[in-house]
Every structure is written in structure tokens, then in C-alpha cells.
């Protein structure tokens, strides 16, 4: 009988406990994890989450990702520098074509450019050029990211911070690059430009009357035409002006009387002085309904009346400058404008 009660023990209150069963219960109880084990488990879960996040989310078989570079280049022509950088960061598939855009035309300035008016970000200048500070530009020349083969033109604000030796270094690798300056003061720079400069088609076409070998019909489409009396006379005689379908801007200074076979279509018209010809006889040869920006400086006594009579035809006008002498003239003119005109 003593063996039978070997594993039983009396406890206060008369309750007996089986030691063997108690030990088994202790051994089977769940153990608390150590802090190290908990930390390792959390790291494992984080690793799983990170791997999941790193998986590509973009479907490369649809949308903008399947557009050829030719189409992307057209899209980039409507983006400014910051937009292009953002697109390049969107996905590495855009890296090459965005670099082409950013390196193509550089504008190098001495001071940081502050843009206070947001709409200027989409002006032609900011759409064309990648703006870079001179210090960053020189750092770029010696960096891994420099792509001289992509550079087509560099416009420096002046030649005070760049030497002609640096210019020679640039074109050594950037063989297709055209270098220009907004202001040149150093004689060495002028000599270098004459000796090395590669020419590109200008946004302006300047005509010298003595250049008899220049054919007005060969003026490139989209060029800005700055005209003097003699040039206009020759262009009109050859009936070339009305054939320039995509002129953006025409400036006429004291023009002679002329006749064209059809109205001249142009976005911007700047007219100064009509000494030899009545203003009406000049403006009647332009498609006034297509003009978006108009500037007229005229001393005719009938100038206000002439402009008032032509006001209804100015249907696309966005900006206007007239040398009216009184508020009454302005009031009469604006009353004649179309209601949907948006003159600035």
C-alpha cells in the first residue's frame, strides 16, 4: 500500500496532488518566446513585405510603355525641363529618350534662374532649353553622366565665366554642338566663334538688300521675318510673302504699298509707321481673323477710326498694343471687338 501512495502528497486543506501529472502539465505548457526570437520573426515578415513591394507593378504590355521613341519625342516637345526629369524617374524605359531631350539644348547661366510666374514654365524658351548653373555645368563636363554625343546646342548667357579653351574642349567630344552667346565681350571668344562655330537655322531670318543671291522663297518655314522697306519690296514683287504659310511673326517698319495674291496668314504682326501708305491699305492684305498678337504704331489722323472699323475682324486676338491718344478711342475700339475676344 505504501507504493500505491508514493506519488501522492498531502497539502493543507486535505487536497492531494499527483506529482507526476503536475510535472507533465508543466512540460506541456506553451513556452514564452525570447525577445531575440520575436525580433527574428519580425525581420522575416518585413523581408517578405519588402520582396512583395519590389515586384514590378507596371504592366509593360500596355499604355505609354509600348509607345515608340518617335512618339515619346513628340510628347517631350510639349514638356519643360522639370516635366522631363519627372518622366525619366517614372521608369527606366524612359531614361534614354529623356536624356536626349535634356542634353539637346543647354542654357548656361551664372546665377540661378527664379521663375516667379508659373505660366513661363511653358513658354518656348523653357520648353526648349535645359537650364543649368555654370558651376553645375562644369561639374557635368567631367562627370560620368556627361553625354556629349547628345548635345546639339549650348547657349551661354555671356563669356565672362567660360574661356575659349573650354569651348574647344567641349566641341572636341560634342562634335555636333553649336555654341552661342547672348553677350560676348572677350576678343578671344569672338575669334574662336568665327573659327569654330557651327551654324544652325535661326529662329529669325534677317535679309540684307545687298544679298542678291538670297531667294525669299528659300526662307525656312516657321522663321520669324524681320523686314525693311527694300526687302518687303522685293518679296512682294516676287509674290513670295503670301506663300510663306507658316510664318510666326512679321515686323514692318514704314512699309510701301503692296499687293499679294491672297491674304497673308501670320500669328503676330508688328507694324510701325505708315508714312507712304495708308494703314488700311497695309492691313487689308493680312488675314486679320488669324492674328493673335497685334502691335500698331501710327500717326495718321484717321488711325482710331480705321482700327475701329477693323475691330470686328480681330477674332483670334490675344494681345494688343495701339498708340491711341485718348480713352475715348480705346472705348470705341473695345466696343467693336467680338465678345469672345481675350485681349490682354
Automatic annotation (TrEMBL):
Taxonomic lineage: Eukaryota, Fungi, Dikarya, Ascomycota, Saccharomycotina
A Pfam match: F-box-like
All residue ranges annotated as the F-box domain in the record: 61-106
Entry protein name: F-box domain-containing protein
Domain of life: Eukaryota
Amino acid at each position: 500500500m505504501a507504493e500505491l501512495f508514493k506519488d501522492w502528497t498531502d497539502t493543507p486543506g486535505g487536497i492531494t496532488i499527483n506529482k507526476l501529472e503536475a510535472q507533465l502539465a508543466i512540460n506541456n505548457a506553451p513556452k514564452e518566446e525570447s525577445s531575440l526570437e520575436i525580433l527574428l520573426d519580425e525581420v522575416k515578415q518585413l523581408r517578405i513585405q519588402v520582396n512583395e513591394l519590389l515586384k514590378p507593378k507596371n504592366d509593360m504590355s500596355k499604355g505609354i510603355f509600348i509607345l515608340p521613341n518617335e512618339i515619346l519625342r513628340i510628347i517631350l516637345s510639349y514638356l519643360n525641363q522639370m516635366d522631363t526629369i519627372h518622366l525619366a524617374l517614372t521608369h527606366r524605359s524612359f531614361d534614354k529618350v529623356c536624356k536626349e531631350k535634356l542634353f539637346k539644348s543647354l542654357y548656361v547661366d551664372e546665377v540661378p534662374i527664379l521663375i516667379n510666374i508659373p505660366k513661363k514654365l511653358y513658354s518656348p524658351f523653357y520648353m526648349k532649353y535645359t537650364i543649368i548653373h555654370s558651376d553645375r555645368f562644369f561639374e557635368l563636363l567631367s562627370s560620368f553622366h556627361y553625354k556629349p554625343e547628345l548635345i546639339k546646342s549650348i547657349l551661354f548667357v555671356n563669356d565672362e565665366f567660360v574661356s575659349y579653351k573650354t569651348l574647344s574642349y567641349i566641341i572636341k567630344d560634342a562634335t555636333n554642338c553649336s555654341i552661342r552667346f547672348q553677350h560676348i565681350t572677350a576678343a578671344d571668344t569672338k575669334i574662336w566663334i568665327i573659327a569654330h562655330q557651327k551654324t544652325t537655322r535661326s529662329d529669325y531670318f534677317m535679309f540684307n538688300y545687298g544679298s542678291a543671291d538670297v531667294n525669299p522663297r528659300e526662307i525656312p518655314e516657321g522663321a520669324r521675318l524681320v523686314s525693311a522697306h527694300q526687302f518687303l519690296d522685293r518679296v512682294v514683287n516676287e509674290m513670295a510673302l503670301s506663300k510663306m504659310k507658316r510664318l510666326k511673326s512679321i515686323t514692318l517698319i514704314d512699309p510701301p504699298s503692296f499687293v499679294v495674291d491672297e491674304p497673308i496668314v501670320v500669328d503676330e504682326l508688328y507694324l510701325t509707321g505708315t508714312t507712304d501708305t495708308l494703314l488700311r491699305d497695309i492691313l487689308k492684305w493680312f488675314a486679320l481673323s488669324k492674328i493673335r498678337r497685334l502691335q500698331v504704331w501710327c500717326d495718321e489722323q484717321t488711325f482710331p477710326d480705321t482700327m475701329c472699323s477693323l475691330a470686328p475682324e480681330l477674332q483670334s486676338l490675344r494681345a494688343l498694343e495701339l498708340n491711341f491718344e485718348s480713352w475715348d478711342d480705346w472705348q470705341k475700339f473695345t466696343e467693336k471687338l467680338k465678345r469672345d475676344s481675350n485681349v490682354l
